[in-house]
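Question thread 4412

I'm putting together a teaching handout and wanted feedback from people who do this every day. The idea is simple: show students a protein as raw sequence, then show them the structure tokens that encode its fold, then repeat with a second protein so they can compare. Below is the first pair exactly as I plan to print it.
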Amino acid sequence: MNGVNRVMTFEHLRARSRTLPPLTADLLAAAAVGLFTASDAAVNDPDYRQADRFTWLLLAVSVLALVVRRRRPMLVVTVTGAACAGWALYGHIGELLNLPVIVALYTVAVLGDRRRTVWTGAVAAAASGAVALRVGHDVANPQGLPVLEMVWPLVPLLLGEAVRTRRELLRVYEARAARAEEDREREAARRVHEERVRIARELHDIVAHTVTAMTVQAGVALDALDVRPEVSRRAMRQVRDSGKEAVRELRATVTVLREGDDEPTAPVPGIDRLGELIERFEGGGVELVMRREGDLDGLSPMSQLAVHRIVQEALTNVVRHSGARRAAVSVVRRDDRLTVEIANDAERGGAVGGGSGGGEGAGPGAGFGLIGMRERVAAAGGGVEYGPVPGGGFLVRAWLPAGQRPDRSQAPS
């Protein structure tokens, strides 16, 4: 328990020391080094020179130099190293007289780079060995002394190098963690954006189609109200059914925004409901024809929804903007490819792509329909093309994968 408390106290003191101003920390370090070094310099072996004015002068120079060790580390190493050598040559023998130069060497390594540490270590080791050779004959048991004196300057340098390397690694890890957090935030933002785009696309398809179909049927009902009441009633029933269908689809779309909602949603519109889709536009002055070919069972829900929305958007634009009298819908499956085509004639001008579904430059809010087509088809692994055809009219053609492995690169012939 006492060991844990000591560790906690040391960590607390180290954390507090990091909050001190640099000058205050350097003054405290210099005072601590001066205290230990002065205690060693004051008590020398009786057989050697005792402390005098020159001794204390070297001590004062060494301690004062440590105050600027962060700003001028190489100068401080030179000054403290010269003072340490001066003590040795002057005849002072002590275990702590090299403490100032040890602190200076550590500072050089921890604040510098590896190249400077190597050069400093080589010079310091050579200088320490030379001083040891010079004073070795005056020291008891000098055997092996130069080698040991060449090693000790390398210890604080290695310690400083290890601390600096650890700090650099911590900075690298912190930078990686920050980048990873930024990547996670960008990924979350990207997913939110994609979900918003998906919901906006669904709402556009549902609302635009339903309003168009209801407008068509309401017009039929209004025209036949006095002369053909049965046609008017049938048209109004179609308006009612279209409204109910829109509510169901909107409810299914909005449900994804609700958390913890176990309420079942409406089935995803697919190819089997294209007939209902075409019936909603009947009576709007456009003759609609539909052709199916191939086995259309077993398609993925994403592909079926894409087909439904493509036909829905194209027919909406035919009725609202093209002015055409005839339009044809074709859904064909051959092997692993599903091809969807919607074409209208040009008897009264216009095109499938006009108005809100037209390309760029069609006016405010233009382009969302065809943009939604491209996004849906791309998400399902296919492609889409559209444009005017020779002889007049407009064509929308999309191809989707009908097998297990979609081929996005191959375009229709």
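The second pair follows. I'd like the answer to focus on this one:
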Amino acid sequence: MRFEAFLTHARAWLPGRTTVDARERLRAVAGAGLGLLVTALLCRWMAGPLAASVWLIAPLGASAVLVFAVPASPLAQPWSVIGGNTLSAVVGIAAANWIPDPALGAAVAVAAAIGLMFSARCLHPPGGAAALLAVLTHTTHFSSALFPFFTNSLLLVLAGVAYNSLTGRRYPHVQVMARPPASDARFSQADIDAVLARYNQVLDISRDDLQSLIQQTELESYKRRLGTLHCSDIMSRTPVSVEFGTPLQEAWALMHERRIKALPITDRTRRVVGIVTQADFFRQLDLQHHEGIAGKLRDLIRATRTVMSNKPEVVGQIMTRQVRVASADRPVVDLVPLFSEGGHHHIPIIDGEKRLAGMITQSDFVRALYRAVGPA
């Protein structure tokens, strides 16, 4: 047991596998080099006659790693870089002025800088180095916080915005997500916030990226566990369908008799042109007043005996024209987003000639999912 514990502890010291490819590494390397070069040239020019003094701070190298190599990190966002470096510099300068012992001053400056960055929501690891640098170089003029600390950080961030955007990386990342209304999604931002609160540690990933990673991981798990299951394997092979001119009464009676909630609508070649659901029927009714709904429905589906009519008479007049269909050879896992988050309950399945071949309902999908990923 002790040996196993020792091995577990030893593995914690080993680096993890890098998950980015060579192209992404090159993108980060080139971005850091260009960003620092632009920042250095501009700051040296701005320093002018004072070029002999410090015009580029060493912690900026660490900031460049975050801005260009991990632009999605909350620690790399503009306010974290600019606020973290600048506020930490102010703390370091204050320590250099008021604490004679550099060892004590360095410890107090770094600790106070971390506390201030937490409070100001701009935690940035190079900020600790900025505070330490101010103490060790005995920087006592508070104007140094503006130049070079603030100026260096601002220019690097601007370079990061330009370079990351041009190379296909979103920067900055939105850190305060708007809370979407309650839906059928498997988890919400509130769920993520609750878990992060229990975790109670700084997590170097934004909430939206964390949510996206969880969703993609779930989808990858479904792909692995559902294997080669296709729509043709779980669809109903004899779907009941109607045509554009099918009377409302006939379509409603068919749905009631077969206990189904949707009917695909096809043309004479069996190609899907729409779908009609119970919701489409009720959408034609005045539901502001719930009294007499049954009577209103009877009046809607009853055929008008006159030549002219002021209400729909056939399903083609109330159908949903934009229909999401899937081919019979499509992997079932591709339907996960449609059923779980897209709000779909019925998906017509078409064959190679785009003719109606079957129907998959939400119940069919859940049943197949349970059989594939349920208890062994």
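Top answer:
Good format. For the second protein you could add a caption like this: The chain has a mean pLDDT of 87. The longest strand covers residues 272-277.
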